[in-house]
Design brief:
Elements lengths: L2 E11 L7 H14 L4 E8 L6 E7 L2 E8 L4 E8 L5 H10 L5 E10 L6 H7 L17
Antiparallel strand pairs: 1-5, 1-6, 2-3, 3-4, 4-5
Length: about 140
Amino acid sequence: MSSMGRHLIIECRGGQARLSERELETLLVAAAEGGGATILRTFFHSFGLGKGITGVVLLAESHITVHTWPECDYAAFDLFMCGDSRPEKAAEIITTACPDAVTSIRIISRERPEGVQENALRSCFSADASMNEEQPIGSPR
């Protein structure tokens, strides 16, 4: 592993911006699973009928988010995955969901900080990560 992970930014003009809250959650869960990621939690919020939706799929390997503006026919997706996950496969699932949409994808490699050993990263990004216990912000784990 030469990097911390890959970060994909997807911008869509078209079909994804008009998907319902439930359809977006189904799509992002399928993308996470297709990308080999471990889902910890999901949360989606609709701002009202015909208005935008914001959603997040929290992963052991990081996250997938979506923000839609149906009034502008625009949706923005953010995928950050590390470890053995495949964010490019997750992106393919998202972009093929609405083949009529015009999309652009930017890929950013998150480089390993200087001095951090590869085996230290593996323990940070193991799929054993768990969110079974609620922890207040700032409290020790």
